[in-house]
Amino acid sequence: MEVKHPVSSKVKVAIIGSGNIGSDLMYKLLKQPGHMELVLLTGIDPNSDGLARARALGLRTSTEGIQAVIDDPEIKIVFDATSARAHVRHAKALQEAAKIAIDLTPAARGPYVVPPANLEEHLDKRNVNMVTCGGQATVPLVYALSSVMPLLYAEMVSTVASLSAGPGTRQNIDEFTETTARSLEVIGKAKRGKAIIILNPADPPIMMRNTVYAIPEGDFAEDTAIEAVEQMVARVQTYVPGYHLKNRPVVDTLDTPWGRRQVLTMLLEVEGAGDYLPRHAGNLDIMTASARRVGEMFAQRLLGMQQEVEA
Hints:
Layout: E1 11-16, H1 20-31, E2 36-42, H2 49-56, E3 61-62, H3 66-70, E4 77-80, H4 84-96, E5 100-103, H5 115-118, E6 127-129, H6 133-146, E7 151-161, H7 167-171, H8 173-186, E8 193-200, E9 208-216, H9 222-237, E10 243-245, E11 250-256, E12 259-270, H10 282-310
Parallel strand pairs: 1-2, 1-4, 2-3, 4-5, 5-6, 7-8
Antiparallel strand pairs: 7-9, 9-12, 10-12, 11-12
Helix pairs in contact: 1-2, 1-10, 6-8, 6-9, 6-10
GO molecular function: acetaldehyde dehydrogenase (acetylating) activity; NAD binding
Active site: 133 (acyl-thioester intermediate)
EC number: 1.2.1.10
């Protein structure tokens, strides 16, 4: 008689980077672990507030950075919340250690991933990139529209509280706009994309707000387009509850570089969950919430593969 060993229902995961992003992700993984078990938060600053909070929660910590992850063969999925420069080094080491890397930096050593748009086609990859906060917020809407009609152009304007934009964001504004515009084309399927980011110093801080403009190639069914957008918003809300449209998408006929055409305008707001970061930091919250969603899907796939092997 064949003896079957019980299949683990959790995949061990780790976070590299104990700053704001890594700390907020830690709280999300502890609050909603799903099929993941967070076993390590590692950084390089022994005085890190994130590491201190992790220890207080009973989580294993390290100041040895990526080495602590490499040394633990049970860790299968790694969230990298460090920097683009660091992830370039980390990507190679994690690949050699046969670990899946979910990259929250601008390094983009793997394909761009936006969960409701293209995650399923990249679940066989060993490294995926979470694009940008603007990409996670606006690409789903553009993707929804392009699924029901071809788009000539998509543009997003993202306004975030100045307090929620750290030094990494400020130093990489050009990279942010280029990456986000590219994701509107690669994932959103617009023929041309453009991205703009505005840091608003208002006090009290504003919520993350995004305006999305889309120009279809030709005539389209307005009700069908709006229904596609509203269905996508509902899908994103399953993992980012504070994600919502400020109004029903508006259709106007305007002069454009392609002549007089119909233009759809969508106003979107993202409120953070307040797990670690303040609620106005929706731009950071949508990154960590999306990363948690991606990790969950990878964990389910790994467990499914394990069940097939042991069946």
